[in-house]
Amino acid sequence: MSDPTTDVRRKVPDTSYAVEAARNFKEEDGESTLTEQKILDNDDTMVTVVCITYKHEEYIAQALDSFLMQKTDFKFKVFVGEDCGPDRTADIVREYAAKYPDIIVPFIREENMGAQRNLIDMCQRATSPYIAFCEGDDYWIDENKLQRQVDYMEQNLDMRFCFHNIEIVAPDDWYFNDYYKPNADGRRLMPDCIPGYNKSQKIFDARSYIRHNPARTSSVFYRWNYDADIPGWYYQHLGGDVSMSMIQLGDGRCSIIPGVMATWRRSEAGVTFAANADMDFLKTRVDWVGILSDLRQYFIDNFNGLARVQIENRIKLESANYLQTLIKLNRTDLIAEFFQLFPESAKISLNAYLSFYRDSRALTAVYGWDGYRMAVRNRYFRRLVKPLVRMALKIKKKKDFLKGKLKNILSFWYYWRYTITPKKKNVWAFSAFSKRGYMDNVKYLYEYVLAHHPEIQAVWMTLDKGVYKQLQSENKPVVMMRTSECQKILSHAKLAFTDHYRMSDYDAFSGLNDRTKIVQLWHGVGLKAIGDLKNTNIAGVMLSNDILPSTADNILKIIYKKIKYFRHAYYRELFEHYFMLACPGPERIEQVAKPLHIPLENCFMSGHPRNVFLHQTLPATDAVHILYAPTYRWNAIKEQQLVQKIIDSADAIQTCMEKVNGSLTIRLHPHTWRNYNVQLNDLSQRYDRIFSDNDADIYQTLGKYRILISDYSSIAYDFILLNRPVVFFNYDFEDFIEKECTLNYEYDSYSPGAQTKSWEQTLAAIEAYIANPEKDSEWRCRVRDEFYDMTVNDQDNSKRIVEELKRRLGMI
């Protein structure tokens, strides 16, 4: 091995001070007390090699030598976390750190942390853009490994990480030698030797990655995301390599690069070592199913369910492997325990079993038992029919393709066919919340039109049978979407109302067409950025400057865009063609109309229909009714934490309400990830001052509350129309604006009320406002007047909008 201190290509910083700091490392309650939060502050290290080691006395020197032999034109560091093992591993690490203080930084743990905490602690102390992993019983075999991986990542900036083939180093009697087939040279190279692995695939996303878990720890090289949250469950599992790769990968991509540059040693030192294949399954499969279960929820919560199907397929496979092994070993007593540990995974696996069972019964009904056995179990028969099955699949694929094309063609046909249908100025269509909800601004405008304008044919359109039956029972005009009745009405409708997007609330199959004017009412004012189209994944919600001519276009480009418009308009939102955007104040123009390119002449100043109740005379009351209405959380775990905070603080809330002779009503967002009625109803039964409001529509009763508790919700900015106190309970502010939603306005200035971080502070703020309701009144009015034009926000909001629409249509 060459001496790295004399290698002219290696330029490393002097950070020997970190060695002593690391030696003095102590741990209390699982958290580091090392004063240096980042060992390499102000350092230009390009790569940090992170090596966790435990009971690796026999192997650690080989690993460290393989790191030190790396030839690079950049600086790198090696963090070695020795996890309080019973052998001389720590002494060997210290010897290497003393010899190479500019490269090796030891973390000698005085108490065992566990592999995952050991790993993450070191990763959090790095500052380099790249991090490479290698465990202490593995080693690298290519002196250019780091240089090649850095070069690749620098040239492929869209890759989250890269990896390469590694060679399995295992005894001749290893129980998985038959599973991992050697190549022509007798070497077992992973991932190439994984059964069913597609060697031609070079790029992976989360969906393709989880199928085979192709990267082994000693090969991964991350463009490290220091901002990625490490969930608590990560530390609870035996294995962490797959979880970490999936967390770092997220919705990005990774790649395998050529070469065999490391090893994977199967030794008795590993935490997952077992004496035979059956014991391996008993030891690792439960943990693996647990990891997959947690990853499934993680991707549902953070990446809109990306890779959910592929993760569930792995859950089915691993559950089957585990249960099969239990039956083989006559350990059926552990089956019930498995179902208790992982009820959701067990449900997924059980549903798969039932599905296969139903399929087998269906085949048996057709072929008989002997025919079924031949078709499914006889490999010669399977080979015989394989070409026929493939041919049938190709036909099905073509049919699915043609079906999708046909759907597009029909949507295109309906859109332009209904465009030429004569429109009636008095036919107005209403829909909301992805064609299913019945609430908010569209609902209230619809009800106003029904009550005051019999000359207008107002019809609600829905895909929700519950909404349909409700409105039918109330004798309100309603039709089910995608029916001939709906097509007949919507094809003649001059106006269609929405408060989200037309692409979510209408479709061509229901009769939407190019000459139906879209009226956008939206759903509240406030701080949250809503002009950013990245906030939605609804197909077709995009700017349309590519199909709409501009004054800068020449005649040829105008013709080209008109042709393209004819082809694409049927599945576009077309903000630029809105007939009206209702604007309670200038804020809507600045934060919605301008970013979305809605013409200013199509913006009409008027308050929201849902707020008319706030402007009506409310009965005087001395009752201290308080409402807690937090905003929507995109992350289900954050939502659960919010509910748990309420439950944990129930005693304090009850005591405060008794003190002020008041009551607290909890009203969660109508689109929560889970149903919390059981928990909240239980609170109401145990505490007579705490209530739960399960009604999705809050606006008819909002005016009865004297104080509102919220965080970032538009309800807070509706409530200040009453100039009543608002408590801004923003305990997760930094996390919310970083990971959930950006804000258009500076929070401290535009949240006119007490800002609190705990229920204790919130309850103290409530007492202060009850003692002095006028506290912060001037501040509330200032913010109110910036968001609202008070000359057009009153009990006549709906009336004002309807009269303007009738004027624009020439009906008055």
Indicate the overall shape: globular
Would you report the number of β strands?
24
Radius of gyration, Cα only, in angstroms? 32 Å
Structural class: alpha/beta
Low-confidence stretches: 1-42, 270-275
Distance between the termini: 92 Å
Q: Average pLDDT, to the nearest integer?
A: 87
| Beta-strand residue fraction | 5-15%
Number of helices: 29
User: What fraction, in percent, of the residue positions are helical?
Assistant: 40-55%
Largest sheet: 9 strands, mixed
Protein architecture, described:
There is one protein chain. The protein has 29 helices and 24 strands. By secondary structure, it is of the alpha/beta class. Strands 3, 4, 5, 6, 7, 8, 9, 10 and 11 form a 9-stranded mixed sheet that branches. It has a 7-stranded parallel sheet with strand order 14-13-12-15-16-17-18, with helices on both faces. Helix 18 (about 555-570) links the parallel strand 16 and strand 17. The radius of gyration is 32 Å and the shape is globular.
Summary tags:
812 residues; alpha/beta; nine-stranded mixed beta sheet; seven-stranded parallel beta sheet; 29 helices; globular
